[in-house]
Every structure is written in structure tokens, then in C-alpha cells.
Amino acid sequence: MAQTQSTRSCRAHLINIGDELLEGVRPNGHLVWLGEQLARKGIRLQQASIVRDELAPMVEEIRQAWAGCDLVITTGGLGPTTDDLTREAVAQALGLPLVPDPEAEVALRQRFAKIGRQVSDLDLRQCRVPQGALSLPNPRGTSPGILLERDGKVLAMLPGPGLELQPLFAEQVVPRLRACGSACDGDAYVQVRTYGIGAAPLEAKIRPLLLPGMQLTFGTHSGVVDARISPGSSGACRDRMMEVARKVRDEVGDDFVCTGHACLASLAVERLAKLGRTLAVAESCTGGLLASRLTDIPGASAAVAGSIVSYTEDAKMTLLGIPADLLAQHGAVSAEVAAAMATAAAEKFGADYGLAVTGWAGPGGGTPDDPVGTVYLGYASSSGVWSRRIVVAGDRAQVKIRAVNAALDWLRRNLSRYAVEDAVHGA
Amino acid sequence: MAQTQSTRSCRAHLINIGDELLEGVRPNGHLVWLGEQLARKGIRLQQASIVRDELAPMVEEIRQAWAGCDLVITTGGLGPTTDDLTREAVAQALGLPLVPDPEAEVALRQRFAKIGRQVSDLDLRQCRVPQGALSLPNPRGTSPGILLERDGKVLAMLPGPGLELQPLFAEQVVPRLRACGSACDGDAYVQVRTYGIGAAPLEAKIRPLLLPGMQLTFGTHSGVVDARISPGSSGACRDRMMEVARKVRDEVGDDFVCTGHACLASLAVERLAKLGRTLAVAESCTGGLLASRLTDIPGASAAVAGSIVSYTEDAKMTLLGIPADLLAQHGAVSAEVAAAMATAAAEKFGADYGLAVTGWAGPGGGTPDDPVGTVYLGYASSSGVWSRRIVVAGDRAQVKIRAVNAALDWLRRNLSRYAVEDAVHGA
User: Do A305 and B292 touch (CB under 8 A)?
Assistant: First the structure.
């Protein structure tokens, strides 16, 4: 049985290094990814800091993090150029000299020989480690990671590019954290993912099911509400937490999405593939985002035929064959048009199911009855055609994301609700 | 003339408060948005910290930030519940008592009366401020922001929701920073956005054009390379920087995208609207993301007719009328099919231009000649039909984003290159 609690409680501090992260050039993907990984391993990320490529503030931040936490992770600043200062900063903060790592140098020389490149003195900077630290081979890049264990604490320096950082952390850092009892073997919590119920009513349903001492936390994102159940002081094993999750599932009913971290789009693709059925999409206000989310999932082509993004009334008539009269009488944002779009999508693509979205994403548009944020969903299967009106909050970008989540959730409900009928009608 | 340099150099520290930001539930959008805003105002964001909803670490972080910087911004933790602790933390860190703000209380009571809600003692917690601080009215939410000026420094506490934070910062905090000489009136730098040239060759082109003392920094994101030119010690005014930017434009040629922050999608929509022309899209590997990016732009419906996401070979034949023989001979990922898709998109939607993307996004697929990451773009106009092969790096998600950027950039080039021919042929 997987160990659900680490043998000692571990507090982490993440330090992301790089000027670009502080200038709004791009989001800090490392924090999202590492934040989830650490939480799943039962490690509490106590704080995250983003600092510039400057030695003095880096040294200061590393020193404080090292004093206050059991695990310090740095990202970036390991490259060959003179503004890559993470090694120097760690060495100074911990009062250790930087020494060459012969193994890392051999690996670098082999890598460069293979691509016919000369090794310069600058390149060799990447092969130095603080004394007593270990190079972590990085087959996807030139800069190895570095791991330092000292005074019962761990410091992991990871390369900046995500494609190098993620496998290096999962394959080389996590096993060491597990070995020293800081990370648990399996997931530290059982997550129940829901859609359609608020965090407060969900909490009211879950609380009575918990064993004394069990902990409950919530995460919400664009309509999805996640409840994470962890052992806390109860000492419960994973099986006991799964037992609670099963009871939660019964209590929550249709609003239960899954146990774990699967997203609505991957669940839809998986379910369709299992049924051996295909889906076609017609989109107006979401403008392609619904199809994009579905096709983010590897292997989507087995389940998703495609989408018609009919962004104009003309396109709705020409591409989907929506009658001009229907558009004139009910408007492009209406239950009637959503149903017609879903039916047309399924027909045009020869798919088993059709899913449609039409609404007012804003900032312009809307009517007194259907203000900005109003969205109609359409669903077509061999059992029938339905439409549904929802209202979502937020700006244009958020309306798109929430409308897509609502559509994917409705697809999920319909696929389970009408599975039998669809089979009878031979959808 | 807009003032391009703040009268005194200002260093900022951003503190984002919230457990969810540390558990990978969602990205920290505040850092991206505020990071760009501060950079544009000439304020140097020195560090960003993300801390949990716990009093002691919040107090410690605020104390350090206040000691080391001229401007401290906090986000979140201003609500009515007992785990909203930002006010308490700031008061403790700065050694100030919390006092009720009568104006904020009046505003809250009016707001609640309007929606027929009782004001509880918990609600009134939101109307307290550290002594000497100012409530910043928040018409979009119940928690006002707070601004504290003291010892020549500024501390701004902003509410957590982005739709409340952003206007509050722009409308109430920035004017005060400008008044005390910490923020400049216009943008602090001139940004030259490029696509198709690397940061190193771009730097080689720009360096000789700079006046002595001018500063140059770079930002890269999914193929886009931004060069930011700021006055540095040159004391140059905005006009002189724009002069440099114009010279950079001449040097860079077709790789020049724009001066400023406009994204590739908004430039495409704007350009099409100006020409009075429409675009239709056909997508395979990008799965709807190209259409979604275009329709992120308010008013896109004037320029973007829609998209056909033909994710399967069947869909390419049925929806776009791509001949089965063409698919069989050249494969769905080929220059020939990309050209046919672009032509079909324009025809089916009755649009002036067609833009198509087909490629291998991975992780599966690819051929020895066209491995994962290979993408063919197609472009159709009244002047002709072209296709182009590109190779992009990254995982499935990154290939999608980079292929979309490449398609939008190619559209931009084609629209300027063939503007005359298109007009002659009456596209």
C-alpha cells in the first residue's frame, strides 16, 4: 500500500530566478507545475519568490529560504553565460566553495563532441557544483541540475526550460526526497473534482464523512471545485481516504467529475474513446477554444472529428445550414440556434454527438434578456437534441474559458445520463 | 511631451497572498499583469513573493519588503473572513493600529442596502485601515483597496479578484505614483516587437543605433522577440527613443512586427478590418487555437468569418473537400494539403483570405522527413496560393502555440507583401 504521509513534515521554498518573470513577459509556469507536484507529494510549499539575475538579492533570498525551510528549490540561472549566477549565489549563501564536477564535465564534452561543438571555458562553468553537491544529469539540455543534502535539508537547483526541469525533478529529485522521508510514495491526498456545486455546500456534504483529524482544503478554477482530503492527524491510509471519496461521490451525485486530476476535456475524450463514439463541435462565442481544449489531449483524433467555428451569422447559414429565419426570429444567441448548431455539427462531420456553444462573450453585444455572459449550449445525439442556458461571470477571456468548461461538463453529464438510450438508438 | 523617466528611481516588491497560488491550482495572473504595468511605468519590480494566508510569514515578508523597496504591493487577503489577514499583517509589520474608515463604512452600507443584505461585524472588518492609510473605493467588489504613504514610500493593498484589482491599480494607484514622481507619465521604454529574428542578431542590429547610455533589454515568448529601449543614463526623451525605434524598423525589415505591445492576433484583426477584408481559417494540428486566438480580440467578427477544425482525414475530405487522392499521395501533413485547406477555407466561408495549419503536434505521429514539430502553413488570396514548411520546438501545447504564432506572423507578412496585388485582383 502506498505511503500517504511523508515520514517527516517537509516545508519547501521555491525561488524562481529571471528578470523576464518580473516584467510580465510570460507567466511563471514553474510555480504552477512544481506547486502541484509538491502538494501531491505531501510537501508544503511555504513560500515562492521570484528574484532578478543579481547576485546579492539571490544570495539573501537563498540564505533566508535555507534557514526557514527543509527543502529549497531554485529554477533557472544555471546556463553558461555570465548572468547565470545561481551556482555562485548558492555557494555564497551556504559558505561553500564551487568545485568542478568531473562526471558532469565528461558528460558535457561527450555531448558537445557529438554535435561537433568546441567546449569553451564559459561552457565549463556549467560543470561546477558547490562542494559536497551532486550533478543531476540533464539529457535534454547542456546545464545539469544540482542537488545538495546538508544538515538534514535538501537544496535542488533545476534548469530553467520546462522540458528539462520537469523530467529532472520527477526522475531525480523526487526519488531522493522519498528516500529521506520528505515525500510520500503515492499522492498525499485524495482529490475529489466536482462541477456545479459551490465550495461551501460541497464542504457541508464532505465534513460529516471525514474521520476525526482528516484535513479538507478546496481549490476552484473556472467553475471546477476540487476538494482535497488528506490524512491530517488521523493517520488514515490511502484506502481509508478513497473510502471517504467514494462516499463523497454518492453524496454529490451528478456534480461529481472524477477522483484525481484529470481535466474535463481529457475525461470527455477518454469517455468517447471508450464508447467508440465521435463528437463534432460547433462554436460561436468560444471561437475555437472548445475544440482546442479537446485537441490538447493526445489521441483526441480518435474521438473528436472537428469543429466548425461559425463566428458570423453568414457562417452559421453557409457552413452549418442554420435557416436565416431561425436566426432572424430567435437571434444567433438562443436555445433554438444552439440546438440547430449541435445537430448540424454532428451531421456535417458524420459524428455520433454534436456539441454547440453560442453566447455573448463581451465586451460588446448582449440584450436586456441575455446580457454579456449569457451562453446557450446545444447537445445532439441519436436520443434527441437539447439546449441549455447558462450565465457565466468575467471578462471576454473568462467567459470563453467558463463557457468551454460548462460545455464539457454538460457533455459529461449527457454521455452518462443517456448512455443506455444512445446505445438502443444506435447513436 | 510625455515624461519617459520617473523623477526618482523606484523599486517595487509584490506580495501575492493565497494558499491556492502555492498549490498549483491556477497561475498567478497578477504577477504577469502588474509586472508589465510596473515595467511600462518605469518602476523596477525587484522581487515578487507568494505567501500563505498565515499572519507570521505575511508580517515578516511585508517588513522585509518595506525595508528594501520604495513601493510594496500586496494582492488578496482583504475580504471579510477570518483568514483574510492582509490588513492585520501590514498593521503589525509597520507598527500601526487598525482604525475604522468611516467613508469606507458608508460605501459598504450603501452597497449592501442596495442588494438588501444585512451588514455583519465580519463585513465591517473590510472597513478598517492601518492608521494614516486611505481606503481606495472598489465599485466592482465589497473590499476596498488601501493605500499608505509613509517615509517617502508607498504601500498599496489590492483586492484579489483580477476584475477588481486591475482598474483599481490603473485608476487609483498609478496616478498617486505619478504624483510623487515614482511613475512616469507615458511608457518608460519603447518596445520593438519582432518575429523571425533571434535576440542575438536583433541586438547586433540595434546596439549601433542607440545613443550613449540608452538601455536595451529583451523578452522572448513563443517566437516573438521584444526589444525594449529605455533612456538609461542618456536622459533621452520619448521622441528620441521613437527615432531609434524607427531606425530599428528599417534595419529589421519584414521581421518588424510593431512598436508597442499589440499581439499578433490583434494586429491581424486590425489590419483586416482596415482593409475591409475577411479571413477564414482551416486547422488541423492547432485544433481550434488559431481561431480562438483571433476571436480573443473584441470586434473580431468584422474580420474573421470562422474556422473549420478538420481534425481527421475524413473531416478534411467532407468539410473542406480535400481530394482523397491528394491526402493519400502527400499525406495530411504536407505543403499540398495545407494549400488546399487554405483555399477551401476561403471558398467555404466566402472570405477574402484563407489561412491553414496542418502538422505534427506530438507526442505521437511524425515521419522520418517530417518529425513531430513539423508544421505546414497554407495561405490563399486572390493573388495566389502559397504554402510553407516550418519546424517548431516544444511539447504538444508549445507546438500548438508556436504554430499559431507562425501562422499569424505569416499572415501579417503576406497581407503587407501582396496588398497591392490583392487590390488589383479585387480580393
Answer: no
* Angle value at C-alpha B315, between B312 and B321, nearest 5 degrees: 135
pTM value?
Answer: 0.92
Please tell me the distance from the alpha carbon of residue A269 to that of residue B252, in angstroms, as a whole number: 45
pLDDT at site A4: 60
Strand partners, A256: A194
Chain segment A227-268, per-residue pLDDT in tens: 999 998 998 888 999 999 999 999 999 999 999 999 999 999
Compute CA distances A283 → A161, B119, B145, B167, whole Å.
35, 43, 39, 31
| Distance of residue B369 Cα from the nearest chain A Cα, in angstroms | 20
Chain B residues with CB inside 8 Å of A61's CB?
47
Other beta carbons less than 10 A from residue A89's beta carbon: 27
Q: Compare CB distances from A311 to B163, B217, B301 and report the shortest one's residue.
A: B301
Rounded CA separation A367/B374 (Å): 45
In chain A, what residues touch B283 (CB-CB under 8 Å)?
Answer: 288
B409 to chain A, minimum CA–CA distance in Å? 19
Contact A163 B394 (CB under 8 A): yes
Q: Find out whether B220 and B193 touch, Cβ atoms under 8 Å.
A: no
The residues pairing with B381 across neighbouring beta strands, listed in sequence order, are B384
Q: Mean pLDDT by 10-residue block, N- to C-terminus, for chain B (427 residues)?
A: 63 95 88 95 96 96 96 94 92 97 92 88 90 94 93 96 94 95 90 94 95 92 94 90 96 96 97 96 97 96 96 93 96 97 98 97 94 97 96 94 98 86 66
Measure CB to CB from residue A31 to each of B28, B35, B38 and give the nearest one.
Answer: B28
Residues in Cβ contact with B263 at an 8 Å cutoff, skipping those fewer than 6 apart:
none
Contact B314 A295 (CB under 8 A): no
State which H helix or E strand residue A258 sits in: strand A256-259
CA distance B50 to chain A (A): 5
Instruction: Find chain A residues with C-beta within 8 A of B281's C-beta.
Output: 309
Could you tell me if residue A321 is left (phi over 0), alpha (psi between -120 and 50 degrees) or otherwise beta?
A: left
Strand partners, A377: A357, A388
- Partners of residue B321 in chain A, C-beta under 8 Å: none
Most B-contacting residue of A50, A51, A314 (CB-CB within 10 A), to test interface: A50
User: Is there a contact between A292 and B301 if contact means CB atoms under 8 Å apart?
Assistant: no
CATH topology classification for B190-259: Alpha-Beta Plaits (3.30.70)
**C-alpha–C-alpha distance, residues B174 and B168, integer Å:** 9
Answer whether A287 sits within 8 Å of B305, measured CB to CB. no
Structurally, at CATH architecture level, domain B11-179 sits in 3-Layer(aba) Sandwich (3.40)
State which amino acid sits at residue A105: E
- In which band, very low, low, confident or very high, does the pLDDT at A6 lie, cut at 50, 70 and 90? low
Asked if residues B380 and B346 have their Cβ atoms less than 8 Å apart, the reply is yes
Complex confidence, ipTM: 0.91
Domains A190-259 and A264-424 share a fold: no
> Across the interface, which of B57, B298, B306 has its CB nearest the CB of A319?
B306
Cell numbers of A45, please? 510549499
User: Chain A: nearest CA to B166, how far in angstroms?
Assistant: 12
Q: Which residues of chain B neighbour A363 with C-beta distances below 8 Å?
A: 298
- Domain residue ranges in chain B: 11-179, 190-259, 264-424
**Cell 494566508 maps to which residue?**
B53
Please tell me whether the peptide bond between A130 and the residue prior to it is cis, using omega within 30 degrees of 0.
no
Which residue of chain A is at minimal alpha-carbon distance from B395? A163
What is the architecture of the domain spanning A264-424? Answer: Alpha-Beta Complex (3.90)
Give the bridge partners for A150, in sequence order.
A153
Residues of A in contact with B49 (CB under 8 A): 47-50
Three-state SS at B299: coil
Tell how strand B353-359 and strand B304-310 pair up: unpaired
Kindly determine whether residue A34 and residue B24, on different chains, have CB atoms separated by under 8 Å.
Answer: yes
